[in-house]
Write a structure and sequence with these properties.
mainly alpha; single chain; globular; 173 residues
Length: 173
């Protein structure tokens, strides 16, 4: 993450007024979870975990694996638009406050690891954050070479893939 991506170098400083000024900003900034003053990506991932749990337990007949798959796919497409627009409006390619990519990525992880206990979900959270922050190959290359909203969204799907691959290997042992 460059200084501009962290909010320095003349980029718009995100706040509630900016977020509420455009529906794209509201989505890209994770309905406010991306406005956390420290570790906004972690807060976005926590928001994903909370919403997945609440929606799945409150309306289990509606939020089935098939429905979640459609929600994640639609959320990814909405995120490409929302993150692209928000990035242009902020003047920064991938500002830290844009956390919709973490939301969609972690929903994808939870779709495959649930039903599971809290401990398994906590490990999934931990490893997703590790892969998202460290950006092992090819995540770093995706981050550098795919621009716009697609670039913002795509690298977190790669982090989700690594997390799920790790769980698949772990479960096969």
């Amino acid at each position: 993450m460059t200084p501009a991506d962290a909010g320095d170098a003349g980029a718009i400083r995100p706040n509630a007024r900016f977020m509420l000024s455009d529906p794209a900003h509201l989505v890209a900034q994770g309905f406010g979870s991306g406005l956390a003053p420290i570790m906004p990506g972690t807060f976005g991932t926590l928001f994903a975990w909370l919403t997945f749990h609440v929606l799945s337990t409150r309306w289990p007949a509606f939020f089935t694996p098939g429905t979640w798959t459609m929600v994640i796919a639609a959320g990814f497409l909405a995120g490409v638009w929302a993150c692209g627009r928000t990035a242009r409006n902020m003047g920064v390619a991938d500002h830290g406050s844009m956390v919709w990519d973490e939301v969609i990525g972690f929903w994808a992880v939870l779709l495959f690891v649930t039903p599971s206990g809290f401990g398994t979900q906590l490990w999934a959270f931990f490893w997703f954050r590790v892969f998202d922050m460290l950006k092992p190959p090819p995540i770093r290359q995706i981050d550098r070479h795919v621009s716009g909203g697609l670039g913002v969204m795509w690298d977190d799907l790669a982090a989700a893939f690594y997390t799920l691959l790790l769980f698949a290997v772990w479960r096969s042992l």
